[in-house]
UniProtKB/TrEMBL annotation:
Protein name: FadR/GntR family transcriptional regulator
Gene3D superfamilies listed in its UniProt record: GntR ligand-binding domain-like (1.20.120.530), Winged helix-like DNA-binding domain superfamily/Winged helix DNA-binding domain (1.10.10.10)
SMART domains: FCD (SM00895), HTH_GNTR (SM00345)
Keywords: DNA-binding, Transcription, Transcription regulation
Domain HTH gntR-type: 12-82
């Protein structure tokens, strides 16, 4: 960063250098969620740049979802930690440019989860993983009559299943894919995120309970097969006739 170059390339423009420095601080955890960077005059002095250069740097970071610029007397620049929504927004633009259908995005996640189930079944501490999933199933039963609460608990089950494998990269990818599909479906449906009828929600939770039995028994092949079938059922409920639709989230972030 000191020479403003990256990997031997040409010098970075000042706005990009400022954005790079702040981005690195956020990624390293030195700036956390809700932290204030200060107001514009303070930042101009800190970086020794012109107001236009600073504003361009902040515009870059705001577009990436890493900061919010708060206007007014009590305003300033507020930091946001990276999360799956930021990754999803960038990925969604690439998918949209390539005219990728929602079904394709969903299938990527549907491939990960059965493999995660198989991996968990083969773990020596698989009972601890099962114990981590049980309370999420309980939350879904409690929220079975409330579609919105059920949606949140149901999403937590899917995300936790992948995270229990212990591979952080897979976890981030799974969360990103879920974010894209959920937002895309919400954008095109009048009733928001589809969670199906009450009977469908009940079948979904019973299917999760069956998965836990297979995981506890250590039957990886059966767990993978069962969850693959489950995910195809979820696809029919979630996407419905929107499956061929191209990912389009330009106005929904």
């Amino acid at each position: 960063m000191a020479d403003g170059k990256g990997n031997g390339g040409p010098p970075r423009e000042k706005p990009h250098r400022i954005a790079d420095e702040l981005r690195s601080l956020i990624a390293a955890g030195e700036l956390g969620e809700g932290d204030s960077l200060g107001r514009e005059p303070e930042l101009v002095e800190r970086f020794g740049v012109s107001r236009p250069s600073l504003r361009e740097a902040l515009r870059i970071l705001e577009a990436e979802g890493l900061i919010t610029i708060v206007r007014g007397v009590r305003g300033g620049v507020v930091v946001h930690e990276p999360h799956e929504r930021i990754a999803a927004r960038s990925a969604a633009l690439v998918l949209q440019a390539n005219e990728v259908p929602l079904a394709d995005v969903f299938e990527a996640g549907a491939m990960l989860e059965p493999l995660a189930a198989k991996a968990i079944a083969g773990m020596s501490d698989r009972r601890a993983a099962v114990d981590a999933l049980r309370p999420i199933i309980a939350r879904q039963w409690e929220a079975i009559g409330d579609p919105e609460r059920f949606r949140l608990a149901n999403a937590a089950f899917h995300e936790t299943l992948v995270s229990l494998v212990g591979n952080q990269t897979l976890g981030v990818v799974a969360e990103m894919l879920t974010e894209i599909v959920v937002r895309a479906v919400t954008a095109v449906r009048q009733d928001g995120y589809a969670v199906g009828s009450l009977s469908t929600r009940r079948r979904s939770v019973r299917s999760q309970e069956r998965l836990l039995v297979l995981l506890e028994e250590g039957d990886g092949e059966a767990a993978e097969k069962h969850w693959r079938s489950h995910m195809q059922a979820v696809k029919r409920v979630l996407l419905g006739q929107q499956a061929p639709a191209v990912v389009d989230l330009a106005n929904h972030y």
